[in-house]
Amino acid sequence: MIVNTKRFGPIHITEEQVITFIGPVLGFNGLDKYVIIQSEDKQHPFEFLQSIEDENLTFIVTDPFIFFKEYEFQLDPHWIEVLGVQSVEEVQVMAIVTARSAEDITCNLKAPIVLNRDRNIAAQIILDHGNYTTKQPLGGKKGEGSDVNPVTK
């Protein structure tokens, strides 16, 4: 199928690539079908989560464990059941990145996206514990983040 996107133009995707959010991305109720688009540079730690229902909606996402080595949380049994998780190998965790400018780039560690890669279903989950924030800076001192810029494609 062909999906029109504002950022990438028309893209060709298969049904197998469509990720269905069983819990919506916060603030975007009614939009539950997405596809992950990898950066042209395969070494780039950022990907794009593109809505296939709204051509204007694209999130920059990343694996939070790349930037925050101590990041951890226990997935609630409710979400394990709802997402149909059978093993840790089928789970992918992503964090939404917000780039306000090249100097102001943050990562939402408070509400990660948990994806069951085998079933292509996902949910954005709010963590009630831990000291994680929705605006954790990606740049900073060594070990606190990275100077990689997700704004570029």
From TrEMBL:
Full protein name: Flagellar assembly factor FliW
Protein function: Acts as an anti-CsrA protein, binds CsrA and prevents it from repressing translation of its target genes, one of which is flagellin. Binds to flagellin and participates in the assembly of the flagellum.
GO annotation, cellular component aspect: cytoplasm
Signal peptide boundaries: none
Alphabetic keyword roster: Bacterial flagellum biogenesis, Cell projection, Chaperone, Cilium, Cytoplasm, Flagellum, Translation regulation
Any single GO BP term: regulation of translation
Family label: Belongs to the FliW family.
Subunit structure: Interacts with translational regulator CsrA and flagellin(s).
Pfam families on file: FliW (PF02623)
Lineage of the organism: Bacteria, Bacillati, Bacillota, Bacilli, Bacillales
Localization per Swiss-Prot or TrEMBL: Cytoplasm
Underlying gene: fliW
